[in-house]
## 1
Amino acid sequence: MLVESHVLEYPGGYTRSVGPIVGRFLTGLRDAEIVGARASDGRVIVPPLEYDPTTAEPIGEFVDVGPGGAVTAWTWVAEPRPTKSPLDDPFAFALVLLDGADTPMLHAVDVDGPDAMSVGMRVEPRWRAERVGSIRDIAAFVPEGSAGPTPESPAPTTEEREPVTGIVSPVRLEYEINAGVAQTKYLRGLAEGKVIGQRAKDSDQVYVPPRGTDPTTGVLTEIDVEVADSGTVTTFCVVNVPGLSELAPEIPYVCAQILLDGGNTPWFGLVQGIEADDVHMGMRVKAVWADELEASAASIKWFEPTGEADAPYESYREYA
Amino acid sequence: MRDVAVIAFAQSLVGHDREHNEVELISPVVQAAVSQSGIARHDIGFTVSGSCDYLSGGPFTFVQGLDAVGAWPPIKESHVEMDAAWALYEAWVAIQVGDVDSALIYGFGKSSTTDVHEVFSLQNDPYYVAPLWPSTIDMAALQACAALHAGVTTERDIAEFSAACHRAARSNPHAIAAADVSADEVLAAPMTHPPLRDADIAPITDGAVAVVIAAAAVARSVCDRPAWIRGIEHRIEPQALGVRDLTASASTRAAAEAAGVGDAPVEVAEIHAQFGHEGPLLARALGLGADTVVNPSGGPLGANPLMSAGLIRIGEVAERIWDGGVGRGVAHATQGPCLQQNLVCVLEGEGS
């Protein structure tokens, strides 16, 4: 089966507004301070939540906590995730109950190995020098007494002294997508200059490209049907917007739904070789194949008019 | 309340499906469940699915699932971005409201397309937790550590549960992590994610599930021994780990009480325990006694298709009621880090 790598990533990362409560906490981190917030029952919640998790009342005053605290739970990360985990070398994730807090917070603990970890152990934050107002301004917690002096952030500009109002969250996820049985046949067909559709056993409806099932019944389409690389324009639009894709031709160009002969689902393609103004419904067109065929949609460059008489409206009205 | 029963259940699971896409995975399962239900496809009043677009890495990919269920002429349909057990809850509500008399529920997902333990890190708080990228295993291990330290379970309890699940999975043809393993053998293995060991962590599983439920008149007309839903409830806890008691699943306990789990003996419980420590924790929260058989299918430690595994628990209990072997059982489903949200469903045979 054909497998394609797929990356889910938003360039520059997602930007999020943090609001006054989270913003106060992150502003504190930038200044190498940790604050919690008092809930209606008097508990000090760290990191602060916008609302009391029990009563949904707005939270009360901010309270300085830490910097020292105790581990209430931990696990060992033997294989850190490059570019994602807080530390490059193996580390512990832990829930740390800071002095003065009533709820523990999640963070990394930097020690040599799991044998150095225990519930109840005392830790303190090791701060980054370059602090920006992020949970990662704490590089990690370390055993109490070993963090050393807090590095001074470079002299902040006036703007950098303003309260933190947002964060940037880079997200990158990697996938391997499997095309499936039907689409693999279709794509491999394109590499051989063929257009392969499929139909279900109990139906004469040929789906092209096939997606694996007859969508009207949900039944698998197990019968392959080669359809023609020529067909009829059922509907179209003229694109006058430049730069929609690197592959897009010069504007104006025409995108069309094309009912391939032998198929029962209109197929999306470009129409070239004719002035955009002259493209019309019912026009007969034929695929122009790329010089180098491959198992991808790029094998068909576009469609051009065949010069045949237009197809009668009745022959494609169901698809327009 | 209208009496509603589970009348059909089909599943298809594989560790890493390199052949099919999601649509091809769902189609045979839906066909099987509909056929088993005895109700014609277009007589089923409502269709609802559970899945997660993050598993396939594209927005609105759940819509593709519709190609596998026969949506022409147009059908009444819905979707939840949750385990399909919650889709069943929505279907049950639709039947209670009286809009429809039957519903097809399906769940699907391929966990093998990516590092799911990393992907689900994104369900955490985006300001305080997600930037640290703790995996779902890391989060579970923290809960296991807290539970052990509090003394609500022991390393041996966890190992006994995990070993029992892997052994039970041997009699489940759909399981992918079946093994004749003892608690001692589990305990002898290293803690790969302390205090969890590999045997305590559910296997990566691709799969789909489909279930049909129906109101009494329909259910009785097509099913000899319907599995009646006598109680179904779900509850959620705050997201922040720090403000929750990780050593007890308060939301499971609340859902179980509301669903009436303790009103009569529970012969079988299928629980959505994806990590070994969740077995003892959930058994406690559900109030299960020593006489309840827990996860006779092997549970998620035997096979864990994300977004389907919760609904499969309901199907597994229903199947045991249909064949007359069980009179009353409980199914449990969970979502979110460290058992954040929990659904409990009480199923009974006729006359129980």
Note: The mean pLDDT of chain A is 94.
## 2
Amino acid sequence: MSELLSLTAADQAERLRAGELGAGELFEFWRDRAQADDLGCYLWVADEAPADAGSLPPVAVKDLFCVEGVPSAAASRILEGYRPPYTATSVANLRRAGAPVLGKTNQDEFAMGSSNENSGFGPVRNPWDRERVPGGSSGGSAAAVAGGRAPWAIGTDTGGSIRQPASLCGIVGLKPTYGAVSRYGMIAFASSLDQCGPLTRDVTDAALMLGILQGRDPCDSTSLGLPDPVELPTAERLDGLRFGAWGLDEEGLDPDVAAVVRTTLGRIEELGGSVQETQLPSAGPGIAAYYVIAPAEASANLARYDGVRYGYRTENFDDLLSMYENTRAEGFGAEVKRRIMIGTYALSSGYYEAYYGTAQKVRTKIAQDFAAAFEQVDFVVTPTSPTVAFELGERTADPLAMYLSDYFTVPMPLAGIPAVSIPCGLSAGLPVGFQIAGPAFSEARILDAAYALERAIGFEGVPVDYVRPDAESSSHDAGPEAPRR
Amino acid sequence: MIERDQVLHVARLARLRLSDEEVARMAGELSHILEHVETMNQLDLDGVEPTSHVVALENVLRDDVPRPSLAPETALEQAPDVADGGFRVPSPGRG
């Protein structure tokens, strides 16, 4: 059965279809892998193969997706033990398509973080190097897929929370166009930015899952679905396609990461595509707008956690107000408190225009930058993260430094456009992600380009018992090639 | 620069009790973050329309027909304190 670890979700679905594998048997294999996980990926694992185990492999679900009767806490102590009375549309769509829920994955509390260290239930370790973070906030989903603890997973992306952990763990992560996938049943962080998407072993799996997730949902009036059904990608060449590279000269971009990304730009040209530099003049100063909009919306969304209707209530109170204040003080972690404070400040009387109002105008400028870029090129491409996976604890003392690790992933959700991260090689023995962004609803074209590039790169994923070469001595020797299994 | 009094005012708006140590740390961290946020003012935003929603959407309407909802006992099941078919809360007291 361990050969299953080398199969993509689409391959496993093919074996189910051919009758070479039973749905219950496949579920139990992955259930055992998830239960034996020692990376901290899971907060809950299913016991029994559910009746809806069907034509697809089981899926690992980020904790913030509500699943009826299953603990769903967004990795927050304030929701510890909460079992929702309803199921998120994304999860319901996956089940209906034949993919049962394998487990709930660890994450940064309420999706606020870039390292998974803000979880109320402990960190997640990166399967490439256990002393390093998997990225965040969908860190458990990314590490589970990369480390052979789940066939595929869903996460959410607000400022990079699918793409950045996919990059740091060496897998594929897609943030769809805002509105392509329903947000119903997702425990909300920043409602104008949040979007659900796949974390998968390869681009084909991402397309397969997007086809299931996408669609208009009467329960989410901001959902539109995609204009056409999602086909599995087949492109082998990039002839005639124009790629605009952005951000390769940014201060703070690790030179080794930049080198691997430049090698990937060379592969685009080998496949017949053209590469030019693209400017997004508002993006640099503009990403500051994210640190207003996301906390402001979060401070409003998190007002509901007051110890009245669900979740934690303090035992330490003498009236209603002190019950509210102490429940929230005891239930929320440090990063969540910090963002609630920034957001409340930015929305408070006298500051609203200067912060939230200004940030909304910046959003328009960034969307205009992308619109101008897409008149010249088909895709904007960037490194997904300025560095490879960093060490546990390395950035926790400096919140601003942690925020800036989202530099390349924040502009896309501000503009509402889709982007995928695919692994494109190694730096110092750790995966580097390559980001491809396109106009709203261009998922099919993005996935086709990513597929052609993925085949040319030939990235193999983390080998079992992988030992990372010493960073100091091998950062250049390792080169951009992935290790072979 | 965010002062201690402002931190306490915002914390009260947010219904968040902060320890003295948190108040001191928050004052420094918020100042640092908001200083960075100021970089967005480098952009020329004169005459720029704000974006509140990224995808062009008309009003989304549905037929106004009754449909089943959560049973009261289901809605109350996760509450920390329940009495007489409702959520029980402490007295507003001094407020």
Note: Chain B is about 35% helix and 5% strand.
